[in-house]
Amino acid sequence: MKSVILVVDDEPVARQSLSDILRLEGHGVNSVPNGQSAVEYVRTHPVDLMIVDLRMPGMDGLEVVQVVNQVSPDTEVILLTAHGSTETAIQALRLRIHDYLLKPALPSQIVASVKKGLARREARQKGRRANPDLSPAQEAPAEFRFKDGSVADLSRRVIRRNRKVAHLTPAEGRLLRVLLENPGKVFSHRDLVLLVQGYDTSSQEAPEVLRPLVSRLRHKLDEFPNLMNRISSVRGTGYVYEENGN
């Protein structure tokens, strides 16, 4: 059965280009030119994943996502914009958006993001079938399992493997969760301070604010090398969680 994808963009050329890319990958694709049409479509049709432009006349992308999260919580969302900003990225993450891509995104980036989003949706649905009492709000991934047997339970802020257990502070838990939920995405020091600590700072000050927190987290992860070794420093930029090998 084909996955159903909805493309939402007020630019006809961008809308057609995205639709063509996704159809070539074998997906069922529909498209609409504005946020209001997107909301109306999702209210009456099943949609597995949406690609939504941020800046549109009338209802913008973030407003669309807020409504979709209520009426169709199983729908994964990729936000696509030519006007990236730290503030928008943070709003996107808080709204349970699967990914945040800057225009012009390469076809390979779009295809890879869609593949991950659909895989996440399928994993969530499998979890629901295994536990039918679980509500959509509870399905947000809070537990991460790794090949070496390590488990990061971020709802309880605990990492365990066999008899080894590490307890995280709220800030350490937020930092680890942001990285684990966004594998391969490089976060700047400033982005992470905003996401984890909740306040803005300059690009020069952010590394100094973040460094002690990262150091404490890495110290606690010493007993879990399969996890710790996936968290990499990007010289002069920030940090990334490398998905391969987990």
| Tally of strands | 12
Largest beta sheet: strand ordering:
2-1-3-4-5
- What number of domains? 2
CATH architecture of the largest domain: 3-Layer(aba) Sandwich
Could you say which overall geometry the principal axes of the C-alpha atoms support?
A: globular
**Proportion of residues in helical segments:** 40-55%
Any idea of the CATH class of the largest domain?
A: Alpha Beta
* Mean pLDDT over the residues: 83
Order of helices and strands: EHEHEHEHEHEEEEHEHHHEE
Examine the coordinates and then state which fold CATH places here, giving the name of the CATH topology of the largest domain: Rossmann fold
Major sheet = 5 strands, parallel
What features would you describe in this structure?
- This protein has 246 residues and is of the alpha/beta class.
- It has 2 domains: 4-130, 3-Layer(aba) Sandwich (Rossmann fold); 141-241, Arc Repressor Mutant, subunit A (Orthogonal Bundle).
- The chain is 43% helix and 20% strand.
- It has 9 helices and 12 strands.
- The chain has helices spanning 12-24, 35-44, 61-71, 86-94, 107-130, 170-180, 189-197, 206-220, 225-228; strands at residues 4-8, 28-32, 49-53, 76-81, 99-102, 143-145, 151-153, 158-161, 164-167, 187-188, 231-234, 238-241.
- It has a 5-stranded parallel sheet with strand order 2-1-3-4-5, with helices on both faces.
- Helix 6 (170-180) crosses helix 8 (206-220) and helix 7 (189-197) packs across helix 8.
- The protein is globular and about 50 Å long.
- Mean pLDDT is 83; it is low at 133-139.
